[in-house]
C-alpha cells in the first residue's frame, strides 16, 4: 500500500497535468475560429515567380523599379545622403508629427516652392508611413470628424485603397474611371458620377500615373473635373505616389493638384517617396490637409497626431533624413531630378519598345494604349485567362487583371514578352 507521501505526489502530478491540459484546451479554443487570410494578389505573384525554376521566367508583377538588368536600384543621391547621415546624428524619437524639415520639403514639392498656402501656414501636415500610412491617417480622420461621410473611389484603383477605408469604417462608393474598350479614360461616365454624387462628397483621386491603369486625365479634363467639384462642393483627396516618376518632371506630375489649388479647393494629399526616390522599405510619406487658416491648421494637425499616437506613436527617422537632405541641398536635389527623370525615361522607352515589338509580329489588335498610358503600370487589356496562359506557357508573371509593371520590362526580355503576348492574344 502506497504511503501518504507517495499518494500526495501522484495526486499533485495529476492536478498539474489537468491544469496544463485545461490551459492548452482553453488557449487553443481562443483562435480555433481563425481562417488563413487570402493571399495578397501582388505578393502571391512574386512568390510564384520565385518558386519557378525556369531560366526564362519574367516578373512583370512587382510594383518596384528595376534597372535594365532587372535589378533593384539605390539612387546616387540617396547614397550620398546616407553618407552624410552616418555617425552624425542620434536616433532619438521624432515628434509625433514627424520630421519638420522633411515635411517642409515635401510640401514645397506638392504645393510649389513659392506657395502662399505654405507661407500662410494653412496646411496641416504630418510625416506618415509612406503613401499607405498617409491614406490611412486621412481615412481615420475622416471617420472621426465626419462620421456620416463616405468616400468615392475610382474603378479600378490600387486594391489597398479599399482595404484602407474599409478598416477605417468609412463607407465606400465607386465612380467610373477606366474604359475597357478604349483602354483609356471613361471621362463622360466619370463626370456623370461626379455630378450625381451628393453635394460635399469625398473623392479619392490619383494625382498622376493612375495605378493600376496608367490612364490620367488631360490637363483640360482635370480643369473640367475641378470645375465640377467646385459646383458640387466635393472634397478632393489626392494620392500622389509617383510625383516625378511619371513624366520625369515633378512639377508636371503635380499639375492636377495645382489646378485644384488655383480653383480654390480645400484638398488633402498623400505623398510617398517610395517610387520616386527608391525608398520603398524606409516608408517615408507625408499627409497634408489644406485648411481655411493657420488656427484651423494647428487644430487639424493636433488631431492627426492624436490619431497616429496609438497606431505607431512616432514615425521612423532614417528615411525622413534622407528625403530632407536631398530636397534641401541644391546639388543633391539636382542629382535627384536627373535620376528620377532617368527612371521615368527608361519606363517610357520600354513602353515604346513593347508596343513596337508586338506590332512587328503582325498583331491585328491596337496596342496604342501601351504608349498612351503613363507611369509604372500598363493596363494591358489581357483577360485573366490570357494572363494564366502567359504564366503556364511562357513563365511570365503578372496580376490576373492584366496589369504589367513596366519596370520589370528590359531590353533583354521585351522581345520575349512581346512574342508571348502576341501568342496568347491571337
UniProtKB/TrEMBL annotation:
<dbReference type="InterPro" id="IPR004838">
    <property type="entry name" value="NHTrfase_class1_PyrdxlP-BS"/>
</dbReference>
<keyword id="KW-0032">Aminotransferase</keyword>
<keyword id="KW-0808">Transferase</keyword>
<keyword id="KW-0663">Pyridoxal phosphate</keyword>
<comment type="similarity">
    <text>Belongs to the class-I pyridoxal-phosphate-dependent aminotransferase family.</text>
</comment>
<dbReference type="GO" id="GO:0030170">
    <property type="term" value="F:pyridoxal phosphate binding"/>
</dbReference>
<dbReference type="InterPro" id="IPR000796">
    <property type="entry name" value="Asp_trans"/>
</dbReference>
<dbReference type="InterPro" id="IPR015424">
    <property type="entry name" value="PyrdxlP-dep_Trfase"/>
</dbReference>
<dbReference type="GO" id="GO:0005739">
    <property type="term" value="C:mitochondrion"/>
</dbReference>
<dbReference type="InterPro" id="IPR015421">
    <property type="entry name" value="PyrdxlP-dep_Trfase_major"/>
</dbReference>
<dbReference type="GO" id="GO:0006520">
    <property type="term" value="P:amino acid metabolic process"/>
</dbReference>
<dbReference type="GO" id="GO:0004069">
    <property type="term" value="F:L-aspartate:2-oxoglutarate aminotransferase activity"/>
</dbReference>
<feature type="domain" description="Aminotransferase class I/classII large">
    <location>
        <begin position="56"/>
        <end position="421"/>
    </location>
</feature>
<dbReference type="InterPro" id="IPR015422">
    <property type="entry name" value="PyrdxlP-dep_Trfase_small"/>
</dbReference>
<dbReference type="Pfam" id="PF00155">
    <property type="entry name" value="Aminotran_1_2"/>
</dbReference>
<protein>
    <recommendedName>
        <fullName>Aspartate aminotransferase</fullName>
        <ecNumber>2.6.1.1</ecNumber>
    </recommendedName>
</protein>
<comment type="subunit">
    <text>Homodimer.</text>
</comment>
<dbReference type="InterPro" id="IPR004839">
    <property type="entry name" value="Aminotransferase_I/II_large"/>
</dbReference>
Amino acid at each position: 500500500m502506497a504511503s501518504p507521501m507517495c499518494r500526495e505526489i501522484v495526486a499533485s502530478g495529476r492536478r498539474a497535468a489537468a491544469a496544463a491540459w485545461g490551459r492548452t484546451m482553453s488557449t487553443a479554443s481562443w483562435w480555433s475560429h481563425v481562417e488563413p487570410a487570402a493571399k495578397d494578389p501582388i505578393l502571391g505573384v512574386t512568390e510564384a515567380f520565385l518558386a519557378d525554376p525556369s531560366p526564362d521566367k519574367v516578373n512583370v508583377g512587382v510594383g518596384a523599379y528595376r534597372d535594365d538588368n532587372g535589378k533593384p536600384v539605390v539612387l546616387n543621391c540617396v547614397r550620398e545622403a546616407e553618407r552624410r547621415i552616418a555617425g552624425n546624428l542620434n536616433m532619438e524619437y521624432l515628434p509625433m508629427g514627424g520630421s519638420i524639415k522633411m515635411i517642409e520639403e515635401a510640401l514645397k514639392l506638392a504645393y510649389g516652392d513659392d506657395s502662399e498656402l505654405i507661407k500662410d501656414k494653412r496646411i496641416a501636415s504630418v510625416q506618415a508611413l509612406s503613401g499607405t500610412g498617409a491614406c490611412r491617417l486621412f481615412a481615420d480622420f475622416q471617420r472621426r470628424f465626419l462620421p456620416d461621410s463616405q468616400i468615392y473611389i475610382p474603378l479600378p484603383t490600387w486594391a489597398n485603397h479599399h482595404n484602407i477605408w474599409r478598416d477605417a469604417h468609412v463607407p465606400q462608393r465607386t465612380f467610373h474611371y477606366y474604359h475597357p474598350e478604349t483602354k483609356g479614360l471613361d471621362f463622360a461616365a466619370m463626370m456623370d458620377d461626379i455630378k450625381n454624387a451628393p453635394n460635399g462628397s469625398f473623392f479619392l483621386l490619383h494625382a498622376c500615373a493612375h495605378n493600376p491603369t496608367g490612364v490620367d486625365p488631360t490637363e483640360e479634363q482635370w480643369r473640367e473635373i475641378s470645375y465640377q467639384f467646385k459646383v458640387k462642393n466635393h472634397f478632393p483627396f489626392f494620392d500622389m505616389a509617383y510625383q516625378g516618376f511619371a513624366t520625369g518632371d515633378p512639377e508636371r506630375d503635380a499639375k492636377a493638384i495645382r489646378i485644384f489649388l488655383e480653383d480654390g479647393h480645400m484638398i488633402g494629399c498623400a505623398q510617398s517617396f517610395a517610387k520616386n526616390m527608391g525608398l520603398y522599405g524606409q516608408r517615408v510619406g507625408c499627409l497634408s490637409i489644406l485648411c481655411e487658416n493657420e488656427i484651423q491648421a494647428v487644430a487639424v494637425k493636433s488631431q492627426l497626431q492624436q490619431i497616429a499616437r496609438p497606431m505607431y506613436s512616432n514615425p521612423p527617422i532614417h528615411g525622413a533624413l534622407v528625403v530632407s537632405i536631398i530636397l534641401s541641398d541644391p546639388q543633391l536635389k539636382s542629382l535627384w531630378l536627373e535620376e528620377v527623370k532617368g527612371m521615368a525615361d527608361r519606363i517610357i522607352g520600354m513602353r515604346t519598345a513593347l508596343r513596337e515589338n508586338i506590332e512587328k509580329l503582325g498583331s491585328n489588335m491596337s496596342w496604342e494604349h501601351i504608349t498612351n498610358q503613363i507611369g509604372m503600370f500598363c493596363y494591358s487589356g489581357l483577360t485573366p485567362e490570357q494572363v494564366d496562359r502567359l504564366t503556364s506557357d511562357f513563365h511570365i508573371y503578372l496580376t490576373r487583371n492584366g496589369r504589367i509593371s513596366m519596370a520589370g520590362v528590359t531590353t533583354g526580355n521585351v522581345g520575349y514578352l512581346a512574342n508571348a503576348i502576341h501568342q496568347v492574344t491571337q
